[in-house]
From TrEMBL:
Source organism per UniProt: Gossypium mustelinum (Cotton)
InterPro entries (alphabetical): Usb1 (IPR027521)
Swiss-Prot/TrEMBL keywords: Hydrolase, Lyase, Nuclease, Nucleus
Phylogenetic placement of the source organism: Eukaryota, Viridiplantae, Streptophyta, Embryophyta, Tracheophyta
The protein's name: U6 snRNA phosphodiesterase 1
GO molecular function, one term: 3'-5'-RNA exonuclease activity
Single biological process term from Gene Ontology: U6 snRNA 3'-end processing
Recorded superkingdom: Eukaryota
Gene Ontology CC terms, in alphabetical order: nucleus
Amino acid sequence: MGQFLKRVSSVVPNLHVLDIDVPLDTLCKEEHKLEQVALGREFHISLGRTVPIRVHQIDSIVTMLCQKLQFQKRYWIDFNKWEVFINDDRTRTFLSLEVVTGGLPEITKQIQAVNEVYKLHNLPEFYKDPRPHISLAWALGHVSGSFKKVVEQETKSSGFRGSLQSRICTSKVGGIECKIGNRTHIICKSPNQ
């Protein structure tokens, strides 16, 4: 992944590492910093949209999420495909790793459970055809066209064909959290198996 990020950052200017907003090209100059800062952290897969919640809804939403998701078993996720996504406002473009096979059925069930809770609270559901992924880097604006070309070229030149059996990396799910404002609610922790 590190080599792929280096190649993409050399072609796409102004890429930043997600969550820490450090320019990716700065980290790419030192291998250990790239590994530690960009790749050596916890990532998340969104199971629902970011939505405004009223204060009186918080306890109900957290309780219902805990009830619906408390018995989640630990499972593996295969990240099979480099993909480019754009936020709803079209103000940022993201370089992401998408889940295409391993773990997709489990994540899909979790998204459905979150959607049920959202519906009961008159909140907008997740995307109609969700595409679970982790985002690694972002660029300002709607630059998906040029970004996608670079990702396609780099994917081909790196020898990764993106077949459904291939995987770029694999990870075990550690649990589900719900972040509301500055507070993080533990919905479930996956038991070690």
